[in-house]
């Protein structure tokens, strides 16, 4: 793949409402010709959520479920089998649609999503009930398992569909990991922060190891854009509404580094009044103007997404959100200086 495959397009961030994977995949393939993604339907329950689904991708790591959440298991559990079955079913449906819907002739790249190494280490427990994050050796093992699992996942999709694959690492827990603000089993057992140099090294081990273009997605507040800029990620996906004045320098340096911002501009749930595409585009235009960049940057280094996943939206709004995002991206491409 030449250039930055994430630049100047519309894509979704992964999750979708409902439980019908065939309908969801059909909509995503139809609405996102430049960069469709493998859909995630967490409403199906256990194993369909981000953590369970990522666990199904990992190699030589098995997860089970306790009342507190996911926990490392000694052997494959019912929860693990369910997660694997859901994933395999989704890929079978995707392959069928790819062949019968004519998408093979028009689609060249597909995006897959998985929880990143820090979010997995933060949200999964060891058998001792402590977070994986509390054991640096276990964190490294998790990162290695995730890397190999993603490599195999990408290879399978390339074989099935004949397309290039890109990977999105979802890291909602990364800010808390860096800040050391995650709770331990007790107040006397805090979870230490991971220093940025160590975090950067671990993140890069996954980003480089998967062997395909990558984007790091963090749609919460306090996104560590400086860390992502220094990493091997090609792009960062963020919610533009959560940026503060203190984030501007980091955003500017990110763009100066030649990387792409996937800006979450479209609301993830339907607002009381449906915005026009110009209203949706306005925060991105304002951001670029404040940074002093030419608006042509909108056409070369900015892509458009919903603010976060669409699992909490209605099916009607989810489709409309992608249409709005597409209209904004087209305007960025066609006439950014006139916005």
Automatic annotation (TrEMBL):
Coiled coil: none annotated. It holds the Pfam family Meth_synt_2. Transmembrane segments: none annotated. InterPro entries: Met_Synth_C/arc, UROD/MetE-like_sf. Gene3D superfamilies: 3.20.20.210. Residues 10-330 form the Cobalamin-independent methionine synthase MetE C-terminal/archaeal domain. This is Methionine synthase. It comes from Rhodococcus sovatensis. The lineage of its organism: Bacteria, Bacillati, Actinomycetota, Actinomycetes, Mycobacteriales.
């Amino acid at each position: 793949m030449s250039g930055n495959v994430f630049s100047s397009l519309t894509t979704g961030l992964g999750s979708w409402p409902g439980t019908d994977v065939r309908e969801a995949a059909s909509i995503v393939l139809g609405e996102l010709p430049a960069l469709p993604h493998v859909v995630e339907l967490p409403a199906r329950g256990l194993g369909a959520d981000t953590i369970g689904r990522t666990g199904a991708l990992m190699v030589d790591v098995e997860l089970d479920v306790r009342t507190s959440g996911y926990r490392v298991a000694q052997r494959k559990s019912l929860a693990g089998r369910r997660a694997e079955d859901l994933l395999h079913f989704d890929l079978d449906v995707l392959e069928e649609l790819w062949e019968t819907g004519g998408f093979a002739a028009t689609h060249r790249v597909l995006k897959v999503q998985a929880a990143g190494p820090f979010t997995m280490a933060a949200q999964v427990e060891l058998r001792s009930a402590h977070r994986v994050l509390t054991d640096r050796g276990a964190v490294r093992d998790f990162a290695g398992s995730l890397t190999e699992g993603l490599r195999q996942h990408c290879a399978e999709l390339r074989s099935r569909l004949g397309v290039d694959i890109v990977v999105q690492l979802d890291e909602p827990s990364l800010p808390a990991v860096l800040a050391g603000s995650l709770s331990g089993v007790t107040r006397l057992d805090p979870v230490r922060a991971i220093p940025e140099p160590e975090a950067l090294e671990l993140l890069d081990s996954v980003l480089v190891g998967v062997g395909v273009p990558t984007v790091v997605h963090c749609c919460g507040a306090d996104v560590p854009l400086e860390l992502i800029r220094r990493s091997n990620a090609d792009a960062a996906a963020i919610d533009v509404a959560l940026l503060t004045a203190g984030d501007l320098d980091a955003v500017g340096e990110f763009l100066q580094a030649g990387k792409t911002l996937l800006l979450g501009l479209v609301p993830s749930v339907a607002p009381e009044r449906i915005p026009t595409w110009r209203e949706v585009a306005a925060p991105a235009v304002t951001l670029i103007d404040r940074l002093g960049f030419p608006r042509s940057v909108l056409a070369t280094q900015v892509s458009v997404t919903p603010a976060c996943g669409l699992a909490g939206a209605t099916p009607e709004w989810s489709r409309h959100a992608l249409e709005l995002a597409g209209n904004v991206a087209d305007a960025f491409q066609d006439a950014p200086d006139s916005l």
